[in-house]
Amino acid sequence: MKYWYQKPHPSLSEYVRTVLIVEGFSPSGENALPLFTNGMAALFCAMKKGEDGNEEIIQLTLFGKSVPDECWVVNPDTTIMAYFLKPFALSCLFNVPAAELNKQDIELSAWSPHKMNALKLQLAYAASTHQKIEIVDDLFILQLQQQQRECEIIQYATDEIMNNSRVDILTLILKKLDLNERTFQRMFKKYVGITPSQYRRICQFQLSFTQLRTKKFNTLMDVAYDNGFADQSHFIRSFKEFTEITPKDYIQSGIKKSK
């Protein structure tokens, strides 16, 4: 068995983290599957060589969370290609609601029978693994062309909110993207799975929690101000909502553990 990671096609680098290729038929000194991070959305493609020497797709699935362990069974006649995607990219590229992807895995034959049949035919007659990768790349590129506006909106909005979680960030995003609030709310909820306000509050908490955990502050008021909370009381209420303890209790528990 042989495996390797490779960089995604340049036009997909904003959406695909990495591509993992596994060839069961190739000799190698490796005896185990590579390590990869669970929790990443992926397009998983497994192929098996038939008696006629042609490849047959035995699985082509969109996984909104992790690829299950049972998918990684590799035989001497197996080829696997796994495209690991950045957050929210899978839902947006394939125009599938995030809530649906989080609930269940989606077979491409159910998502688009026409595109699945075209892939089957192309992959069956591909002469090499390199050609197979190009074929799947073309699927992603086609999806990006069809969904480019939505992908760009979600990527821009989530990045902006992650970097600046203050209350006025949503207004600034709407102005930058020239979108009305209703359209933006609907699109964001579809592809991210929660509302922009919910996502902003989660990012705001995460940024404040990181600052608290790394002790880069003098007072709790500093943390509240740095992360756009209205005041210290607002920060404490938000922190308790996400952790069920107050910032002060969290700090004191850390002090106790270090003694």
How would you summarize the topology of this molecule?
Blueprint: E1 2-6, E2 16-23, E3 42-49, E4 55-63, E5 78-85, H1 89-93, H2 98-103, E6 106-107, H3 108-111, H4 113-124, H5 129-163, H6 169-177, H7 181-192, H8 196-213, H9 220-226, H10 232-243, H11 247-258
Antiparallel strand pairs: 1-2, 2-5, 3-4, 3-5, 4-6
Helix pairs in contact: 4-5, 5-6, 5-8, 9-10
Structure characteristics:
11 helices, elongated, 259 residues, Arc Repressor Mutant, subunit A, alpha+beta
Description:
- With 259 residues, this protein is an alpha+beta fold.
- The protein folds into two domains: 2-148, no CATH class; 164-259, Orthogonal Bundle (Arc Repressor Mutant, subunit A), CATH 1.10.10.60.
- Helices cover 51% and strands 15% of the residues.
- The chain contains eleven helices and six strands.
- The protein has helices at residues 89-93, 98-103, 108-111, 113-124, 129-163, 169-177, 181-192, 196-213, 220-226, 232-243, 247-258; strands at 2-6, 16-23, 42-49, 55-63, 78-85, 106-107.
- It has a six-stranded antiparallel β-sheet with strand order 1-2-5-3-4-6.
- The protein is elongated and about 70 Å long.
- It starts with a strand and ends with a helix.
- The mean pLDDT is 90.
Name the shape in a single word: elongated
- What's the tally of helices? 11
The biggest beta sheet is recorded as: 6 strands, antiparallel
Kindly report how far apart the N and C termini lie. 50 Å
Strand order of the largest sheet: 1-2-5-3-4-6
How many separate structural domains? 2
What gyration radius follows from the Cα positions, in whole Å?
22 Å
* Mean pLDDT over all positions: 90
Structural class: alpha+beta
Element pattern in H and E: EEEEEHHEHHHHHHHHH
Helix content: 40-55%
The residue ranges in which pLDDT falls below 50 over 5 or more consecutive positions are none
How many β strands by DSSP?
6
As a percent range, the share of strand residues is 15-25%
